[in-house]
């Protein structure tokens, strides 16, 4: 069962407004098992709206259009629809009364532009006869057309309350559509693509997708089927197969970030953590404390950006800095050890590196990063090389550092460094 | 001069991803004086992409398409374009070499899916022959077609660097369109709206816009005119008028963030800073270190999330914490004083507060935040109440703290607290 979405408004084609309406409607329709084959955005222009409407009606069973229903000059959807479908505009008495009440309650006069809203193409049915959010529907050549306001709140309300239920009732034979998302870190894109290609052949009906969300990669598993239990079962089977192939690279599902996962693991094991950050400048602490309740396990940290702050606040030895440099395994180990000892936590996590754009050398180019972890019994360290600009290096460094905690708590090996 | 945008990807028609690419491209084209007549989003589907392309070519002088250029199974834009325009796919040697280099540098093998990216419709021209972001353009029946990747960073880079300049060079008869953006912090939206409303009447041809970017507010000043000098002059006049009315609430122009402004001021005055963060968890240090070269003035900081880390790392007195609590003027002053002394910087900045969702009380509800600043001669502190969720409170706190530095360095008064 497929439909189209048409969003109308100069604010969309000029890039002034982000198209939240199309995004919301597409998401709601997809989640209900319907397919959106095309989303078109056009300005408040007779020819473009009219063309898009006619084109959509050729291939779709329903069309949802938003925008152009208000009382200003450029709200001309009613007129366009009337002309395009060759139906006269008729005054909807009920709608007119409603506008009158609404205006009177606000001590406003009924202006021609307000009255305009009550003139609708012949055969239209108001969507929300009792309320103030206005929209209408009509049937043309067997295709259902819905016209909703562009104001997001009103659009969402009418879509959820009137449009979706009507479409779902009309086309009862709809299959169920479900989707899962798995978030990965550290496996490169070609490897993921190869794995998915192999799987795709063996999983009929399943649609596998793959989307980079730097520095993460997300795999989506989508399935359309007759009923909930069989769809859920099949999705579970494919998810299990992917988990078998990809293993510990998967760190979370759609609803969680790396910091949530790490936080839950720490809380579950009743462990506390402190962080010593150099090149990330506080980003790891910032991420950890984005999670409500993080004060349960996160005690604090030190941002040791200068050499002096490394020696002063973390007791990194001057000789270490002189002999090996601030960006080295030795230094990161002393940072991790120092922060754990000072803040008296179970785990001490440390990073040091060169975020760029300056500061790189031939031996230690921009993107060189060391990660250290001090625990009760051991101190670990590793060296990585990240690509990209300053923000990307910081982002990858904080991700890798948190992934170390996740892997250590899960008993998985750290991702291989260089 | 009108064009169309086609965005390709199942993630768009399923509502999984917000169409940021269409929004960005439409905004950039409009700001350059070009008109976007339609934006179409379709899934990774031969017929829909092919139809949309052909339809766009009928009425437009240029078409910008994004998505489907990567190395995964559903990236089939190259093939679709080749079929739709009846051009064979040819191996682009240069592109292939580049992919090879890229892969080798990362110790990856050249898989068939990677190689696929180098097969392009006959007559295509690579947009970015030297770089790693791939896109191509071709001319069909006098219409310029541009194909860009769906990854927002790459799309934006190629659009700004290659596509826009080419279109603007080809169609020189465009009127000049210029826009300025002024970023404000701390002035509420109704006040800004009032000021703009008043100005709008006095400035013919000027379009004033106002966009909230939490926690900032941005004012745009746009003008279309015959030539550059007159447009620039008029924009300058209006900007001056706005600056007169809004004053120190304006902290930056379009190209800079608060951290850039603060960084430049610190560097210009040759001052160093350290930060003691409680509720922001490291976000202030993270923001300061997003600026390249920030090591010149940012020495480091302490994330003192627990009471113990406040006493241990910042020498906040136990009696202060017991008597006034961790979220108090007294505590934030000792934090600022402590971090300045320990890290030996000219300025010590501190924040403590309740980010929520838990931890609020009747006297100190969620969103209560204290900011402190220690300088050579004085220690300042102030109390604020921020609304919103945990992330919003953190975001506003880091913004206000940086704004304190900006205002102090500029000799402006701090924003009034409660």
List the helices and strands and how they pair.
The structure is a homodimer of 418-residue chains.
Chain A: E1 2-8, H1 10-13, H2 20-31, E2 35-42, H3 46-59, E3 62-66, H4 77-84, E4 89-91, H5 93-105, H6 112-116, E5 119-121, E6 125-126, E7 136-140, E8 143-148, H7 152-170, E9 176-184, H8 189-202, E10 207-213, E11 216-225, H9 228-246, E12 250-253, H10 258-269, E13 273-277, H11 283-288, E14 298-304, H12 307-314, H13 318-324, H14 329-343, E15 347-353, E16 368-374, E17 379-385, H15 390-410
Parallel strand pairs in A: 1-2, 1-3, 3-8, 13-14, 13-15
Antiparallel strand pairs in A: 4-5, 6-7, 7-8, 9-11, 9-12, 10-11, 15-16, 16-17
Keywords:
418 residues; five-stranded mixed sheet; alpha/beta; homodimer; elongated; Molybdenum Cofactor Biosythetic Enzyme, Chain A; Maf protein
Describe the structure.
2 copies of one chain form a homodimer. Chain A has 418 residues and is an alpha/beta fold. Chain A folds into 3 domains: 2-170, Molybdenum Cofactor Biosythetic Enzyme, Chain A (3-Layer(aba) Sandwich); 176-253, 2-Layer Sandwich (Alpha-Beta Plaits), CATH 3.30.70; 258-410, Maf protein (Alpha-Beta Complex). The first copy, chain A, is built from 15 helices and 17 strands. The first copy, chain A, has helices at residues 10-13, 20-31, 46-59, 77-84, 93-105, 112-116, 152-170, 189-202, 228-246, 258-269, 283-288, 307-314, 318-324, 329-343, 390-410, and strands at residues 2-8, 35-42, 62-66, 89-91, 119-121, 125-126, 136-140, 143-148, 176-184, 207-213, 216-225, 250-253, 273-277, 298-304, 347-353, 368-374, 379-385. In chain A, strands 2-1-3-8-7-6 form a 6-stranded mixed β-sheet, sandwiched between helices. In chain A, strands 14-13-15-16-17 form a 5-stranded mixed β-sheet, with helices on both faces. Chain A has a 4-stranded antiparallel β-sheet with strand order 10-11-9-12. In chain A, a hairpin with a 4-residue loop joins β16 and β17 (379-385). The longest helix of chain A is centred in the C-terminal third of the chain and has 21 residues, at 390-410. Chain A is elongated and about 90 Å long. The mean pLDDT of chain A is 90. Chains A and B meet through α2, β2, α3, α8 and β10 of A and α1, α2, β2, α3 and β13 of B. β2 of chain A pairs antiparallel with β2 (35-42) of chain B.
């Amino acid at each position: 069962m497929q439909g189209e979405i048409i969003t109308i408004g100069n604010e969309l084609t000029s890039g002034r407004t982000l198209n939240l309406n199309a995004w919301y409607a597409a998401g709601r329709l997809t989640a209900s098992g319907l397919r959106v084959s095309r989303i078109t955005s056009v300005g408040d222009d007779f020819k473009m709206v009219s063309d898009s409407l006619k084109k959509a009606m050729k291939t779709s069973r329903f069309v949802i259009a938003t925008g152009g229903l208000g009382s200003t000059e450029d709200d001309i959807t009613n007129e366009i629809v009337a002309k395009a479908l060759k139906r006269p505009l008729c005054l909807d008495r009920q709608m007119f009364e409603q506008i009158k009440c609404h205006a009177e309650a606000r001590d406003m006069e009924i202006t021609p532009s307000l009255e305009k809203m009550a003139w609708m193409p012949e055969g239209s049915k108001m969507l929300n006869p009792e309320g103030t959010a206005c929209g209408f529907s009509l049937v043309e050549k067997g295709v259902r057309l819905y016209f909703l306001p562009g104001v997001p709140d009103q659009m969402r309300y009418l879509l959820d309350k009137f449009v979706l239920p009507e479409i779902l009732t009309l086309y009862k034979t709809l299959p169920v559509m479900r989707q899962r998302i798995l978030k990965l870190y550290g496996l490169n894109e070609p490897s993921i693509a190869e794995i998915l290609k192999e799987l795709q052949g063996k999983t009929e009906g399943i649609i596998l997708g793959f989307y980079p969300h730097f520095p993460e990669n997300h795999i989506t598993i989508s399935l359309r089927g007759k009923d909930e239990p069989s769809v859920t079962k099949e999705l579970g089977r494919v998810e299990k197969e992917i988990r078998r192939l990809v293993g510990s690279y998967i760190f979370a599902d759609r609803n969680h970030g790396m910091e949530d996962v790490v936080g839950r693991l720490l809380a579950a094991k009743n462990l506390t953590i402190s962080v010593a950050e150099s090149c990330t400048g506080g980003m790891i602490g910032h991420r950890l404390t984005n999670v409500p309740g993080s004060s349960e396990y996160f005690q604090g940290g030190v941002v040791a950006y200068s050499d002096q702050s490394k020696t002063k606040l973390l007791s990194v030895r001057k000789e270490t800095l002189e002999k090996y440099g601030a960006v080295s395994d030795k230094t990161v180990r002393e940072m991790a050890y120092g922060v754990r000892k000072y803040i008296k936590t179970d785990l001490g996590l440390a990073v040091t590196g060169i975020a760029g754009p300056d500061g790189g050398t031939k031996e230690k180019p921009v993107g060189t990063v060391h990660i250290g972890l001090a625990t009760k019994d051991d101190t670990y360290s590793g060296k990585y090389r990240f690509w990209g600009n300053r923000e990307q290096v910081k982002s990858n460094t904080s991700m890798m550092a948190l992934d170390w905690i996740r892997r250590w708590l899960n008993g998985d090996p750290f991702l291989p460094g260089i």
